[in-house]
Automatic annotation (TrEMBL):
Species classification: Bacteria, Pseudomonadati, Bacteroidota, Flavobacteriia, Flavobacteriales
NCBIfam families attached to this UniProt entry: PRK02406.1 (NF002677), PRK14133.1 (NF010731)
Gene Ontology CC: cytosol
Role summary: Poorly processive, error-prone DNA polymerase involved in untargeted mutagenesis. Copies undamaged DNA at stalled replication forks, which arise in vivo from mismatched or misaligned primer ends. These misaligned primers can be extended by PolIV. Exhibits no 3'-5' exonuclease (proofreading) activity. May be involved in translesional synthesis, in conjunction with the beta clamp from PolIII.
Protein residues bound to Mg(2+): D17, D111
Reactions catalysed according to its record: DNA(n) + a 2'-deoxyribonucleoside 5'-triphosphate = DNA(n+1) + diphosphate
Name under which the protein is recorded: DNA polymerase IV
Cofactors demanded by this protein: Mg(2+)
Cofactor note: Binds 2 magnesium ions per subunit.
The enzyme's E.C. designation: 2.7.7.7
């Protein structure tokens, strides 16, 4: 089948992405930080950056970068402790705005979500105008800016939301999808990370146009199961629906320590605290699971995980702790430890299936 023969869906999806959310909240609440390069999380000596302001990003500071490197890139960088309760509070206010327009809201995190506005509560046939109104409402009610992408499916909408950041939006109409993707640098495709992009460069794939020229067999042969994903998305095909209730696949709690841990006894003490915190989260959402995973990050930043699957669902602190401790003593840590975490997966949740209604409207 030729690319032009693939059917194009008529759903109208908006992807809203807050601009440098954590950092912007800190600058909003503390005027002295406005216009300055700040990093939320991490420090000059340890930890990793959770978010960076746009002023810091100009120096190459990004999330997941170590605090040491971030300070090296930007000597004037200001580190700020994260306040997740505050971020969650504002996120809930933003989601309340979303639900005034549609019940089909799929949060991806505290700072971004998909909205299906094919049918919406405002009766507005223009997804572009709805996105403008939603972004205006967010700014008026929170003082924060958001960017948005509007298109026929979640993939294209997410790519488009990054197009005019910060505080902008991009609409990709149905008849523009193929041209939009064809001219897009491959590193801009959602789902293609740095390693995959490098491999594609070696294969002569630098843009969507070159990706689309490759056969399904070629992509599957070079990228395995992901090959078919790349084959379809570059043709604008992504049928995943906006799910108003995303079901968690795992629930996790972890802590980075101010000083590296060298004693397994101290590690076990920390695991007990982490297990208690994880229990509170599980109880709050009435979730239990069977697979316990222990996460260990060493002082050299290497990561190790150890898992055990039980024959029954658990959610209480004692069983979480006992299992995590068993995994800890399973093998002696190879170095001092900077982070420990416990996650629970194989949960007792069932995904609710929804039926997508597709109608033709003007974008």
């Amino acid at each position: 089948m030729k690319p032009s023969e693939f059917p194009i869906a008529n759903r109208k999806i908006i992807h809203v992405d807050m601009d440098a959310f954590y950092a912007s909240v800190e600058q909003l609440d503390n005027p002295e930080l406005r216009g300055k390069p700040i990093a939320v999380g991490g420090s000059e000596r340890r930890g990793v950056v959770s978010a960076a302001s746009y002023e810091a990003r100009k120096f190459g500071v990004r999330s997941a970068l170590s605090g040491v490197l971030a300070k090296r890139y930007c000597p004037e960088l200001i580190f700020v402790r994260p306040r997740f309760d505050r971020y969650k509070e504002i996120s809930q206010r933003i989601r309340k705005i979303f639900h005034e327009y549609t019940d089909l809201v799929e949060p991806l995190s505290l700072d971004e979500a998909y909205l299906d506005v094919t049918q919406n509560k405002k009766g507005n046939p223009s997804a572009t105008l709805l996105a403008q109104e939603i972004r205006r409402r967010i700014f008026e009610e929170t003082g924060l800016t958001a960017s948005a992408g509007i298109s026929i499916n979640k993939f294209v909408a997410k790519v488009a939301s990054d197009y005019n950041k910060p505080n902008g939006q991009k609409t990709v109409n149905p008849d523009e999808v193929l041209d939009f993707l064809e001219n897009l640098p491959i590193k801009k495709f959602h789902g293609i990370g740095k390693v995959t992009a490098e491999k594609m460069y070696q294969l002569g794939i630098f843009t969507g146009k070159e990706l689309r020229e490759k056969s399904l067999e070629f992509l599957a042969g070079n990228f395995g199961k992901s090959g078919s994903y790349y084959y379809y998305i570059v043709r604008g095909i992504h049928n995943s629906e906006v799910k108003s209730e995303r079901v968690a696949k795992s629930v996790a709690t972890e802590h980075t320590f101010s000083e590296n841990l060298t004693s397994e006894i101290f590690m076990a003490e920390k695991l007990e605290m982490i297990a208690g915190e994880l229990e509170r989260r599980l109880k709050r959402y009435e979730i239990a699971g069977k697979t316990v995973t222990l996460k260990i990050k060493y002082s050299d930043f290497t990561l190790q995980t150890r898992s055990k699957t039980l024959h029954y669902f658990i959610s209480d602190k004692s069983l979480l702790y006992d299992t995590a401790k068993e995994l800890l003593y399973q093998e002696k840590p190879k170095d001092s430890v900077r982070l420990l975490g416990i996650s629970l997966s194989n949960l007792n949740t069932e995904e609710k299936k929804t039926v997508a209604v597709q109608l033709k409207f003007e974008f």
